[in-house]
Amino acid sequence: MLLEVQGINTYYGLSHILFDVSIQVDRGEVVVLLGRNGAGKTTTMRSIMGLTPPKTGKVIFDGKDVTGVAPYKVARIGIGFVPEDRRIFPDLTVRANLDVGLRKTKGKTSWTIDRIYQLFPRLKELANRRGGNLSGGEQQMLTIARTLMGSPDLILLDEPSEGLAPIIVKALGEFIDLLKREGTTVLLSEQNVKFSLKHSDRAYIVDNGHIKYQGTIEELEKDEDVKKRYLAV
Amino acid sequence: MTWQLFVFMLINGLCQGMLLFIIASGLSLVFGVLRVINFAHGSLYMIGAFLAYSLSTILAGESLMGFLILLMIVPPAIAIIGFVLEVSLFRRVYRQEHLLQLLLTYALVLILDDLVRVIWGGEPRSVTRPDLLAGSVNIFGMALPSYNVFILIVGPLIAFGLWFLLYRTRTGNIIRAAVSYPDTLGALGVNVSWVMTSTFMLGCWLAGFGGVLTAGLSNIDLGMGMQTIIECFAVVVIGGLGSVGGALLGSLIIGTGLTFFQLPFGRWALVFPYALMALVLVVRPWGFFGKPER
């Protein structure tokens, strides 16, 4: 297992958000965390990243216990986080945003700005534009590209399709397929069921801070009951 | 007013402004990244000035070399004091309410100022200018103090250096990113608490640098820290808290304004920075180059 989340309980102040959440992600997989708004998808990702450390339970990455480890160390170990609200540094140019994300990693194939530009030619055109002056789709591209610059082994994509035009969502899906082919492991969180099922290998359904279902996409596709109950399909 | 007098006053005003900029830019930079208004910034500046005085008596410098050594030793020494303060105290209050931060930095003002009183006493001191900077230079047929001209050269160099650091290096990108979203920056693998410590040290370095320059310009005494922090505060309110460009503009406006208004208004000119600050607060509370709080 590349990532193993073992029964974590996470709180925001006094409110208990995650209840014994366990997730496993194997190397090379694309796993999706499905659930409604406020179900606990973002909190799960923030817990893994160490931004909102869990009170109990463990997060094991690549055999190392990273529970409660500072986010910058978690990032250096090889987890990349793409936040839902994108968080593009508004005063920095597109190139500077990418530059800030750059991490030199030993041994592994690392991403360079040239490879990013090859993949996202639009970002090259916008290289000198301030991050604050990008459209939603461009910001989403940039936030993913910025995290990729750190050459993570596992990338956490928090609701990437949210608020994007259908054509950009399609491009995003193709991009996730490409990441998978390149051997990057992806943990995705989504509300967009159709999109998720198309691009993932396995799914977890999270509801009210509990994991309610886990299985392969094929299993989930057949399970009309679960789909009706949690995914409103 | 003759044009010679005008140029003379302009140069003096710009010199005052540049000095103020060097100190205020540190205050502004620290606020931008740490979100704490460090009232002890003025005290650190004062310690820089007194350290320069003590060192100059040891170095027995009237040589340019001696003065340059002061400029090389004192600012890093203040930066090291800053390191100790940041790691031991400031770090604990970043996520606390403003009142607590204010109490901490104000307590530091009292402690540091008393420390200066204990070590150096209450008498005004001064650093002898090096021979090369003690005289005057002739520009447009006017004799301008060469020390002021020196500050007028050093100030823009510091401003350029800061601009280069902030806008042309990866370190600068990281500092500016930390101003917007420190958490996101951390999740990208950057050790944000080290960014904060080093930014704080840079701010203190600037305070120390300003202190050395001031020690050569005029008498230094126990009141200088308090007077300067208030002026710096006016500068950053006018220019916009967190903006180095704003600090430059604010400093030059206040420096030249003070100099020019002194002629017709005498001591009343001292009201100028605060009147301007009040005006800016009414019309544009986030300052010329600042941004409204999110």
Explain this structure to me?
The complex is a heterodimer of chains A (233) and B (294). Chain A is of the alpha/beta class and 233 residues long. Chain A has a domain at 1-74 and 196-233: 3-Layer(aba) Sandwich (Rossmann fold), CATH 3.40.50.300. Chain A is 37% helix and 27% strand. Chain A is built from 10 helices and 10 strands. Chain A has helices at residues 41-49, 71-77, 94-101, 113-119, 121-125, 136-148, 166-181, 193-199, 217-222, 224-231, and strands at 3-12, 15-25, 30-34, 56-61, 64-65, 79-82, 154-158, 185-190, 202-207, 210-216. In chain A, strands 6-7-8-3-9-10 form a 6-stranded mixed beta sheet, sandwiched between helices. In chain A, strand 7 (154-158), helix 7 and strand 8 (185-190) form a beta-alpha-beta unit. Chain A is globular and about 50 Å long. The two termini of chain A are 31 Å apart. The model of chain A has no long low-confidence stretch (mean pLDDT 93). Chain B is mainly alpha-helical and 294 residues long. Chain B has a domain at 22-222. Chain B has helices spanning 3-34, 41-59, 64-88, 98-120, 131-134, 146-168, 170-180, 182-187, 192-217, 224-239, 244-265, 272-283; strands at 136-139, 142-145. Chain B has a two-stranded antiparallel ribbon with strand order 1-2. The longest helix of chain B is centred in the N-terminal third of the chain and has 32 residues, at 3-34. The interface between A and B is medium-sized, with 25 and 18 residues.
